[in-house]
Design brief:
Bound molecules: pyridoxal-5'-phosphate
CATH architecture of the largest domain: 3-Layer(aba) Sandwich
Largest sheet: 7 strands, mixed
CATH superfamily of the largest domain: Type I PLP-dependent aspartate aminotransferase-like (Major domain)
Helix content: 40-55%
Strand order of the largest sheet: 3-9-8-7-6-4-5
CATH class of the largest domain: Alpha Beta
Shape: globular
Mean pLDDT: 96
């Protein structure tokens, strides 16, 4: 059929560039030891950093939530779908982040992607100036496009460039937006410097803490706790499908910002509320994150990170050092990264290769992620296998 020809051509081009992606099917819950496509594998690729995704208490809480509230919410939040479970969860998030924000209030979203589209479109209209960090997550890039604001991109971590841009740009509404932990590098954004600039130039600082929430900070509050920041210029986004082990996201900010989102954020207003049972389960997730068990899991995760950094022996491949669960090995070419991922898979270790456009050209990598439910033996197996593999891969 004629309509299919350009799509088939496009797919062939992806094959030629080794950029076609495919999925593997997991038959077991998200965990270090999983069954994928009929094979038993040791996995280092989930974002379940605290190992909560299959935690018995969360499974039980979800069951209880379904029994109490049913399965579907039946409507959008502003019509009829806003349940007591959602309301309680929002109160808990506002309390959890209260140390870092002025007059905090929180809003729960179905996904982080929706939260990011919502925040950027509602805060940065066509008259606004939006300053975006170069390595921001795709959902922030799409949010910036949808916002129709004037967009300036500043280089990765380049606070000086951002300051020059803020100086010359005269719009009344200025919004700086950044990932706190860059998802493919594990680097932390220089949030204290960014916040200082935002306060000086009267700009919002929107922080996407998808990979920090639950992991960073003594209580797992995330990047704001890690850096000990507090400001009414902050708009904080935490996602709940990663360390929190469930799904969804929340935005926490000054109550007026949240009220504005409620009135203006189209992805929020025109979408069915998430099942209340998920919100109910997330209350337990928040208990786990902020309690003793969360502290122990964060401490164990830090031990595993140190172990990997101390024991991995690489020559031309390079482990990016980061204090987070994201520990990528930069390889370079798509071909070689795919080869490494395939060789690991043959040896029972599951780490997919990450290729452009998710990351810049010629920086294809293995994105290793650690979880608090990995053991020291799991990490030793990874370090031994990967260290032995590089000389083979390089001939
Ligand atoms: C995963 C991720 C998101 C999207 O969150 P979802 O809840 O998965 O939609 C947003 N920002 C960053 C940095 C992410 O890594």
């Amino acid at each position: 059929m004629e309509l299919l020809a350009p799509l088939e051509h496009g797919l062939r081009q992806l094959d030629e560039k080794r950029l076609r992606r495919s999925r593997r099917i997991a038959y077991t819950p998200c965990a270090p030891h999983v069954t994928v496509d009929d094979r038993h594998m040791l996995a280092f690729c989930s974002n379940d950093y605290l190992g909560l995704a299959a935690h018995p208490r969360l499974v039980e809480a979800l069951r209880e939530g379904a029994a109490r509230y049913g399965v579907g919410s039946g409507g959008s939040h502003l019509i009829s779908g806003h349940s007591r479970a959602h309301a309680l969860l929002e109160e808990r998030f506002a309390e959890f982040l209260a140390t870092f924000l002025e007059a905090p209030r929180a809003l729960y979203f179905c996904t982080g992607y929706m939260a990011n589209l919502s925040v950027l479109t509602a805060l940065a209209g066509p008259d606004a100036e939006l300053f975006c960090e170069e390595l921001n997550h795709a959902s922030l890039i799409d949010g910036a496009r949808l916002a129709r604001a004037n967009v300036q991109v500043y280089a990765h971590g380049d606070v000086d460039q951002l300051e020059r841009l803020l100086q010359v740009r005269g719009a009344k509404t200025k919004v700086v937006v950044t990932d706190s932990v860059f998802s493919m590098d594990g680097h932390l954004a220089p949030l204290p410097q960014l916040l200082e600039l935002c306060e000086r130039y009267g700009a919002w600082l929107v922080v996407d803490d998808a990979h920090g929430f639950g992991v960073l900070g003594a209580h797992g509050c995330g990047a704001l706790e890690h850096f000990n920041l507090r400001s009414s210029n902050l708009v904080y986004i935490g996602t709940l499908g990663k360390a929190a082990g469930v799904s969804g996201a929340f935005v926490a900010a000054h109550g007026t910002v949240i009220e504005w989102l409620l009135q203006r954020a189209r992805p929020y207003i025109y979408s069915t509320a998430a099942p209340p049972a998920l919100a109910h389960a997330l209350l337990t997730s928040l208990d786990l994150i902020s309690g003793e068990e969360g502290s122990q899991r964060r401490a164990h995760l830090q031990h595993l990170i140190a172990q990997l950094q101390a024991t991995l022996r690489l020559r031309s491949w390079k482990l990016l050092l980061s204090p987070t669960a994201i520990q990528p090995v930069i390889i370079g070419s798509n071909e070689e990264a795919l080869g490494a991922a395939a060789a690991l898979y043959d040896r029972g270790i599951w780490i997919p290769a990450i290729r452009p456009p998710t990351i810049p050209a010629n920086t294809a990598r293995l994105r290793i992620t650690l979880s608090a439910v990995h053991t020291a033996a799991d990490v030793a197996q990874l370090a031994d296998t990967l260290s032995a593999l590089e000389p083979l891969a390089n001939g």
